[in-house]
Amino acid sequence: MQAALDTLRKVFGYESFRAPQQNIIESVLAGRDCFVLMPTGAGKSLCYQIPALLRDGVAIVVSPLISLMKDQVDALKQNGVEAAFYNSSLTAGEARGVLNALEAGKLDLLYVAPERLMMPEFQEKLRKLKVGLIAIDEAHCVSQWGHDFRPEYVQLGQLRPKFPDIPFIALTATADTQTRGDILLRLQLKTPDVFVSGFDRPNIRYTVVEKSKPQAQVANYIKAHEGESGIVYCLSRKRVDEVSEHLRKLGIDAASYHAGYSTEERSRVQNAFQKDELQVVVATVAFGMGIDKPNVRFVIHYDLPKNMEGYYQETGRAGRDGLASEALLLFSAGDILAAKRLISMGENPTQVAIELKKLNSIVEFAQGQICRRRMILSYFGETMLGPCMNCDICLDSPATYDATDDVKLALMAVYELRQRFGIMMVVDVLRGSKNARIMQSNFDDLPSFNKGKHYTVDEWMSIIRQVIQHGLLLQDAENYGILKLTPATRGILREGERIMLAKPRLKVEKPKKGKKGSSADMDDMDEALFKRLRTLRRELADKEQVPAYIICGDDTLRQMAMLKPKNRDDLLHVPGIGEKKADRFGQAFLDLLNG
Ligand code: ADP
Ligand code: MG
């Protein structure tokens, strides 16, 4: 396998394969079909790119999105690989040029849209050429069970028998077993070697905080992460626009993205984000698969996602480059009600039941007091030993306290208000507010009035939310969210039971030092030098008219800042710098480093 390793080093500038890559490449080189399930950012592309370079003939890569193809091809060209794409974005002249290069045997890789590939004339051309392998990227698009079914992908099933002598490799990051089986069936792979690696994304830190003043929480978080790319997911278009406007008012570089905007506006936002010309995108889940940006540093869920699959996928857009990143979920009990209401409006009762069950899992995750990563992995059928030390629970276990007296106070207030008001009124009574509604109704005469002065509004809200989660109070969604006592209160009010609650945790803190996903230790690195390297990369990228990360990733720059290479040989030891990049940009980097 020396040839594969040499290619990895010379062309891509990486020192060693990641765990499953080598076996997959061996299989493809041996001419066997493969099915590859690896999480986002794990490095699926190399699994067909390296065989493409080592096998005779051109490799055909099927990819669902024009933007993904363009990115991959740009990146390959920077490494000196002969790659092109063939899709509807090309002018007639460009398309001709690509076909000529193909027929002349000049291409190592050709990315095609599925509908192009399935055209009989195109297949006729391919049959006259030498094709080295066919790779089907984002293979879950072929399955109706998957989350991103594409009708164009279905016809790909007819392909296997037409090219009997070359290996097929199907790749996806999609999760569940049903979809997996469906992909194999539909693509008719020939007794494929199946490679399934774990779902863990160790460089992503999972954090859940109580949603208290969400707009301020999000704004503060982003301000503490100056210059870092991030996505904020909201459940509705309206919310997207509100949040993004709020952020812009505070001077944060944010834009909205949802299905209500024109195609042009959406691709403008996506491009700007991709090129680091826009820091934050506030979006509905419509902002999705095209996001192959490696340096997304945080993904915030402003609202509760509808299920674990969605949460895992959306948070998975953070940290594709393997550097430390964060997934932050703002969670409130009120969001559960809103989500339930939304789901229950569905027409199909079986579907509604499934969705409610899925919602329960994400609620358990958000409310749980055990390692977040363990919960995610166990949802996808993986077990984990020991704590992950890179989630909010492991890094900072919530302090609990005996809250019996506080809980009793809250329950009494609900009772005295005759179970006819929502959280806000209960808190106002406890805190002795003298607002008009309270004075008009003489609530200042209630025994619990002003008994809870010792806590802030936010602290009381947190306590009451937890009381709801413990099932002592019920929030009536159909009825303005009024609070009602449940039979479970009996234990506390009459039978002397005690109750422990988590101390309210409302602040979104800058993550403490924990495990890092990257080999680069950012403490030791020369931060100023890194910034200058970043500026240089930006200039090089502008000259080439590609996004900055196509020149090289942040990790590469960090390593450069640390290793301070003196010459071309040193530079080749920096991960992500292959021979071609050393030739093209090496001098510019060396001048800066040694100038
Ligand atoms: P996926 O398609 O699985 O989401 P990619 O193929 O886009 O992931 O790879 C993600 C990142 O990991 C890319 O920046 C890629 O260059 C990098 N990468 C892949 N393999 C290696 C390796 N063996 N060593 C270092 N970096 C790697
Ligand atoms: Mg990929």
Reading off the top of the CATH hierarchy, the class of the largest domain is best stated as: Alpha Beta
Q: What would the principal axes of the Cα set say about the shape?
A: elongated
Task: Give the oligomeric state.
Answer: single chain
Structural class: alpha/beta
Outline the biggest β-sheet: 7 strands, parallel
CATH topology of the largest domain: Rossmann fold
Mean pLDDT metric: 90
Number of helices: 28
Write down the Rg: 27 Å
Topology (elements, then pairings):
Blueprint: H1 2-12, H2 21-29, E1 34-37, H3 45-54, E2 58-62, H4 66-78, E3 83-86, H5 92-103, E4 109-112, H6 114-117, H7 120-128, E5 131-136, H8 151-154, H9 159-162, E6 168-172, H10 177-187, E7 193-196, E8 204-210, H11 214-223, E9 229-233, H12 237-249, E10 254-257, H13 263-274, E11 280-283, E12 296-301, H14 308-315, E13 325-331, H15 333-344, H16 349-367, H17 372-379, H18 392-395, E14 400-402, H19 404-416, H20 423-430, H21 436-440, H22 457-469, E15 473-476, E16 482-485, H23 489-494, E17 500-502, H24 527-544, H25 548-551, H26 554-563, H27 568-572, H28 579-594
Parallel strand pairs: 1-6, 1-7, 2-4, 2-5, 3-4, 5-6, 8-13, 9-11, 9-12, 10-11, 12-13
Antiparallel strand pairs: 14-17, 15-16
Helix pairs in contact: 1-3, 2-3, 15-16, 19-20, 20-22, 24-26, 24-28
Magnesium ion is lined by residues 44-45, 137.
Can you describe what's shown?
The protein is built from 28 helices and 17 strands. Residues 510-520 have low confidence and may be disordered. The protein has 4 domains: 2-196, 3-Layer(aba) Sandwich (Rossmann fold); 204-395, P-loop containing nucleotide triphosphate hydrolases (Rossmann fold), CATH 3.40.50; 400-502, Orthogonal Bundle (Arc Repressor Mutant, subunit A); 527-594, HRDC domain (DNA polymerase, domain 1), CATH 1.10.150.80. The strands form 4 sheets. The protein has a 7-stranded parallel beta sheet with strand order 3-4-2-5-6-1-7, with helices on both faces. A 6-stranded parallel beta sheet has the order 8-13-12-9-11-10, with helices on both faces. It has 595 residues and is of the alpha/beta class. Helix content is 46%, strand content 13%. It binds adenosine-5'-diphosphate (ADP) and magnesium ion. Magnesium ion binds at residues 44-45, 137. Residues 44-45, 137 line the site of magnesium ion.
